[in-house]
Amino acid sequence: MDDISSEQVPETVATYLRLRGLKPSAKSWRRRRRVRDDDENQPFTAGRDPRGVGDVLTELTRQAGWEGQLAREDVVRTWAEVAGADTAERTRPVSFHEGTLTIQADSTAWAKQLQLMRSQILTEIVRRYPEAGVVAVRFIGPDVPSWKWGTRAVPGRGPRDTYG
Description:
By secondary structure, this protein is mostly helical. It is about 45% helix and about 10% strand. The chain contains eight helices and three strands, in the order H-H-H-H-H-H-E-E-H-H-E.
């Protein structure tokens, strides 16, 4: 078959032979040769441009699936910018569980005021950090002493008139 020129073979037979890989065409030979000659260590090839450290770290965090966790850490780290300086002085993020960010306030009055501003704060968090996955914000007041601990704790309301 090699001694027969391509002019003597019908076009359909030549196409069949090329598709089956029995007789390489000039185009496929060039393509195979280019792939074989295209070494990753060759200068001036695709993908060889230098990249910044920030680009490399962004790609690494995307591939590792850390974007959400890092975005949640950014919400906590930049809480003063998200909520405002006055609010950040009297509040702090304490937990993030299943899309709900819990914020603890210094007083119940601040917690109630922030509940009224919930949509504004949530909108700002979602606008700045969409990867964080925050879907709700919960505001709680300060920690109060609990009577529900120790070996002699009893079920029920307990002493409630001591703070009144």
